[in-house]
Design brief:
Blueprint (H helix, E strand, L loop, with lengths): L2 H34 L19 H13 L4 E5 L3 H12 L5 E6 L2 H13 L6 E5 L2 E6 L2 E6 L1 H8 L4 E6 L14 H5 L5 E10 L4 H13 L4 E5 L3 E5 L12
Parallel strand pairs: 1-2, 1-6, 2-3, 6-7
Antiparallel strand pairs: 4-5, 7-9, 8-9
Helix pairs in contact: 1-2, 2-3
Length: about 240
């Protein structure tokens, strides 16, 4: 084996080791976060945590942000387990906050509403069920929540925590589907806001992040455990549930 081949093998092995290390670190972050979340899981009905749900570390980060930095006007795109966990937190900690969650899937929206009703959590959540509709953006035409109906539902409401985990953007045709939440609703953001974007390890979300950073250079950006991107206008108390 010549020197060039040895160098290539070394790089290949190091990259493989680094990838494996990142994978193990992500798993350990989620395991640690699941321990943190136990007070909102034990004694409650079972929640189906599947591959489409926010990772435990992401949910823990959001719950910490609500509690530590006193976020009380929450806007969520893509309803799910996080909606229930946030509502449980608001009820258990007696927090004066409200969640507005946007969901396109009619069946899932009904199931989620049943979960919330059974746990007497509907007072904390306003669910807006709208279909996906084509909308023109700087990244081309994408399928996003019906903008007209979203605008009517949000009216002049102002939010200090925005969670973007929908609509689906898990293939090349859909990779820019979450862009309108970054581009169309800034009038609904408070001056002091925290915006979290899930799946920033994917190429599509990375391009959206770079666009938003360039357009809003006054906003700080951080990546949490490789997959959660966080924008905030003001540095506050650190809500990260893991050690960096």
């Amino acid at each position: 084996m010549n020197i060039i081949s040895k160098i290539k093998n070394t790089i290949r092995n190091n990259n493989k080791s680094y990838t494996e290390l990142k994978h193990h670190l992500k798993k350990s972050d989620d395991i640690y976060s699941m321990a943190i979340l136990q007070s909102l899981l034990v004694g409650y009905p079972y929640l189906p945590l599947n591959g489409g749900a926010l990772r435990p570390v992401c949910i823990a980060y959001i719950l910490n942000e609500i509690t530590i930095n006193q976020r009380n006007n929450i806007l969520e795109f893509g309803s799910g387990i996080s909606t229930i966990m946030m509502a449980r937190l608001l009820k258990k900690n007696k927090l004066n906050a409200k969640i507005v969650t946007i969901e396109h899937n009619e069946v899932w929206a009904k199931n989620l509403k049943d979960y919330l009703k059974n746990e007497e959590l509907l007072q904390f959540v306003e669910m807006v069920r709208v279909d996906l509709k084509e909308i023109t953006t700087a990244f081309g035409v994408v399928n996003w929540y019906d903008y007209g109906k979203v605008s009517i539902a949000l009216k002049e409401m102002k939010f200090d925590l925005i969670i973007i985990d929908g609509p689906p953007a898990n293939n090349s045709k859909l990779k820019y589907s979450r862009f309108p939440a970054l581009d169309k609703l800034e009038a609904n953001f408070k001056s002091d806001f925290c915006l979290v974007l899930d799946d920033v390890n994917r190429k599509g979300e990375q391009e959206l992040v770079e666009f938003y950073k360039e357009k809003n250079n006054h906003v700080n950006y951080t990546v949490i455990s490789e997959t959660l991107g966080v924008f905030r206008t003001i540095d506050k108390f650190n809500p990260i549930p893991i050690h960096y």
